[in-house]
Write a structure and sequence with these properties.
two-stranded parallel ribbon, mainly alpha, 2 strands
Length: 71
């Protein structure tokens, strides 16, 4: 796209369904991070907010640990 867009991620699926592995979610978030630099924004809708929260908390901890190790 030439202009920034709002993108509805997994509009017909649930990114945080138990059958979706964390590694796949990691890849989706990586693509979102790259596209965000071009002005795109993303919307996530899930029926599993508990899994989403656990996933984000776990990844945040991992990032904080990586930062602490690198300093």
């Amino acid at each position: 796209w030439r202009r920034p867009r709002r993108i509805f991620v997994c509009a017909h699926a649930d990114l945080f369904h138990p059958a979706v592995p964390d590694e796949w979610i990691d890849r989706v978030f990586a693509v979102m991070a790259l596209a965000y630099r071009n002005g795109h924004t993303f919307q996530l809708l899930t029926k599993r907010p508990d899994r989403m929260l656990r996933y984000l908390q776990q990844r945040t901890q991992e990032i904080e640990q990586d930062i602490a190790r690198s300093t």
